[in-house]
Amino acid sequence: MRAVTPQTLNWLRAVVRRELEVSTLSPTTSRHSHPRLRPCAAFSAQASHARAFNTTSMRLQNSPSPSSSSSTSAAAPTVQHHTYYTLFPKTLPHGPPPTGPFAVDLRALRNEFIQLQSAAHPDRQPSGGDKRRAEGLSARINEAYRTLQNPLLRAQHLLQLRGIDLAEDERLKVEDPELLMEVLEAREAIEEAENEEEVVAMKEGNEARINESVAILDRAFKDDDIETAKSEAVKLRYWVNIKDSLDAWEPGKPVVLQH
Which regions form coiled coils (predicted)? Predict the structure, then answer.
């Protein structure tokens, strides 16, 4: 790796700041001020297996908690007060990290997504308020599925639940010269690639970077190490954008890494 002069480092930071003005990956979730996640009782395994989806009221129903076993069912708070994990109780019964894993069973998530969308589809509701609520819930299920199936969006969602906006923090804290230089060299290599074989080799190397970052994020969220999770999510964001550039590669085509 080449030496990084102060002038080059300043230039790289300026480029990064400009590119970060356009964020194409940040999920549109609400931010919370609490520093740690507070797992809800709805995340318990007992509640998740007995939860039923009520398409008339558009609310998620919980099974009785241990403290209220005499009740047949108890309505959970509206979906907006929970995380995306709440919408997928079968796939993610323990909720978000650190109580649940960062890794997600994508096949199970897909199957539950199809079931939820079938139950919540607006066409199953009469016109009026129920139909509008169904449309809103269907859109939120789509957004939750899109976020949870993608490791980067999932990490950003978890960080936002801690009050951390990754894009804003990046503008101030991209200080690792080796990371910046590695990104710059990857960009140059993509632009200089002459054939598909070179691109395939770069894809394999970048996929290894992505897998390493995902593994680090898994450990960080499990240990509730938010600083490590934040810094690794920044790296993953770069590797994902490099992946997008490699997928869109054409001979002589300029490379623009959007963040």
Answer: none
